[in-house]
Amino acid sequence: MITAARVVLWDLDGPICRLFAGHHADLVADELLRWLEARGLHGLLTETERESPDPHVVLGAVDLRHPGSDLVAELEERLTQEELKAMPSAMPTAYADPLIRTWTALGVRQAVATNNSPRVVRKYLEQRGLDSCFVPHIYGRTQDLHLLKPDPHAVNRALGALGAEASSALMIGDSPVDYRAAHAAGIPFLGYARNERKAKLLRDAGAGHLVESLEQVLQILRVRRS
Prior knowledge:
Structural class: alpha/beta
Number of strands: 8
Largest sheet: 6 strands, parallel
Radius of gyration: 17 Å
Shape: globular
Number of helices: 10
Helix content: 40-55%
CATH class of the largest domain: Alpha Beta
Strand order of the largest sheet: 5-4-1-6-7-8
Strand content: 5-15%
C-alpha cells in the first residue's frame, strides 16, 4: 500500500504535527464558548457539545443551527485566529518531515486535506521548509462547514486537482473522521496512532492498517529508494 502510492494525502493535526501542543485545543474550545456566552448564545449548544474539548464540535454545533450565517463566519474566523496562535508552538510529528521529503524525492505528489484552516497549514509548512512539497495542494476548512471531514469533499478536491485515481492514492490520518473521509472517497487509508487510545478509536471506526510511528513508513521508502 505504501510503495504503490503515487499520491499521498495528509491530515495536518496528528500525522504532520500536534497543532495544539502548546496552545491546547480544550482551551480554544472554552474560548469559543466564552465568546458565545458573552453574546447570550450559550443556549445554542447542548450540554454534551459544551463539554467537548474539540473546538470543531462547538463550531459545527453553531453551524447546524445557523448554517451560513454571519455568526458562523465570525466564529470560524475566531477559530482560525486561535489556530494561528497555536501554530508557532506546534510540535512536529516524529519522522514526518523526512518522510514528506523522501516521498517528494521519489516523485510522489502530496496534498493536505484537513479540517484546519488552510492559512494555518501554509504557515506551518513554510515554517518547516516543507511548502514546496505540497503547494498549491492544500485543502482545508472553508465556511461551508458541512463539507468538513468525514465528508470526503476536501479529499476529492485534492484527488481532482492532482488528476489522480483513488486507487493510486494513500490517505494518512489519525482520527475516525479521516478514515471515514478516505473510505467514502475510495482511498486506501493508513492510520497514525501515537497511543493506544488513538489506535482503538481508529480500529473501532474500521481502519485496518495502523502504525504507531511514521518511522515504520520511512524505513519502507528508504529501502525502496536504495
